[in-house]
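Record pair follows.
FIRST:
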Amino acid sequence: MKEHGVDENWWMSIFDAMYLKTDARSVCDDHLTCQEVDFLEKCLGMRRNWRIVDLCGGQGRHALELARRGFPYIVVFDYSNYLLSVGKGHAVKETLPTSFIRGDARHMGLREGSFDLIMIMGSSFGYFVHEQENNKILSESFRLLRPEGIILLDLPDRSYVVENFKAHISHRVNDQLAVIRERRLERDVIYCRERVLDESGHCLRDNRYCTRLYSQDHIRDVLEQTGFQKIRFQTDFMPRQEKGEFGCMTNRMVVMAKKV
C-alpha cells in the first residue's frame, strides 16, 4: 500500500551504501557520535553492567562508541543487512564486544525482561504512516525491558520542524554528489522525495519515504498508553541549525521513560 507515493515498507531497502554517503554528515560524524554518547552517559547515569539494545541502530555508531568506553553487553538491532555488515566489520577490526542482529523492530524475538536500556537514536522512530505500527515498536521495547529499564527516543523536535519547515532542501555531499529533497507536511507526517544527482545532473537514486512528528504531549500519551512512566524530555538535543539545513536531524528532542 502507498500513501502520497510512499510505500509503507520503504525502510526495508533505503539504508545502504548510498545512504551512508548522502547522510554522512550526520551518521558518519565521529565527533557528533561522541557528543551524543557523552549525553547518554551523563543523562542516564549509565552503568557498565547494563544490557543495551541500540534499536534501529544501523551500523551501530552509538553502540560501538559505548563498547569502546567499556560497555560489554550491547546489541545492535536493525533491518539493513548492509549497515549491519559495516558495523560488524568495525567491531571485528577493533575487537569490540558488540552483537548485531537483523530483524523487524516490531517483533524482535529477544528474551522478555532482559535489557536495561533500549535506545532509538538519530530520528529513527516514526517511519510508519500508520501510528499503530510505530506503537508496536514501543510495545516490543516495553516487553524486552526489565523493571526500571529505560527507553530513550531521539526524535525530531516537532515545534522546530513545523516553525522552520521548508518544502525544498538540498545539500552537496561532495564534488560528485548532490541531494535534493522535496517535502510535504500533512497531519504530522513528513512525506519526502529524495533524489541523488551526480556531477552531470543524472539521477542516481529517487526515493520516497516518510517520518512522523511527535509533540511532547503526543509522545507522552503514547508512552503512557504502552505502560511507561516517569517520562522526561530534553529539548535542543545537538542543535545544528547554525551549521546548515539537516532536515529532521537539525534540531531534536530526547524522550526518556521507565518501565516501572
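SECOND:
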Amino acid sequence: MLEQIDKALWLAEGEAVRFYGLAYPTRSVIVRLACDQLWVWSPVGLTEKLRADIKRLGTVTHLVSPNKLHHLHLAQWKSAYPAAKLWGPLSTITRCRELEFAGALGGRAPTEWGGDIEQAWFCGSFAMDEIVFFHRRSRTAIVADLIQAFDPAFLAHDWPWWARPLARLDGISAADPGAPREWRLSFFNRTPARSALATMLSWRSERVVIAHGAWARSDGQAFLERAFAWV
C-alpha cells in the first residue's frame, strides 16, 4: 500500500473513484515532519492495512485537501485521527461545512509545515482553485487535478472503449498530461495562475507526484513546464 520515495515521503495508492461515470485512480502523499508528525495530502480510503502502515511512520497531525474535489475521505480520516487538523482552500471549507478546519490555505504555507513544505495557489478560475505543494528535502512537487496523466494500461482496463480517446482529446493522457481542457478554459483571469506558476517553477522540482495517473519520477521541471504550458 505504501511506497517510500524519499527519506520522509511516502505514496499511498487508493481505489479508483467515479467522476462523471468514469474511473479515476487515486493517490495520497504522506510527509513526515519534525517530531514524527505526519502530513497527509489528499487522503485515500483508509483501510486497516494502510492504518497499520501509517502507525509505524508517526502520528497523523495534518489532513490536507488541495482543492474542493479531494475531500471524499477527510471525514473518515478525521474520525480515525481526531487530533489531526483539517486544511484546505476556502472552496473546500465551504463545500465541507460539516467539518471543522484549522484554516483556509492560500499561497503561503502555515507555520505548521512551512519549514518543510512550500505551496502555491492556482486561482483565477470560476470553476475551481488548487493548492500545489513542494517538499523541499526530496525536491518533489505535489499536484492534484492540475495535472492528470492516464496511461494506456489503465484506460484499457478501466475505461470503456468509446471513452478512451477522450483522455487525449481532453489533455489528460500520459502522452500529453495536464489539466482538463475545460478547466483551462475556466481561467478567465490567468494573472494569479501565472504568478503561482512562476513560484512553482522556481522550486526546480526533481520529481512530480500527481493524484491521478502516471507521475514523474525524474525530470520534474520539464514535466511541469510541459503540463502548464497553457497558462
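COMMENT: The chain has eight helices and eleven strands.
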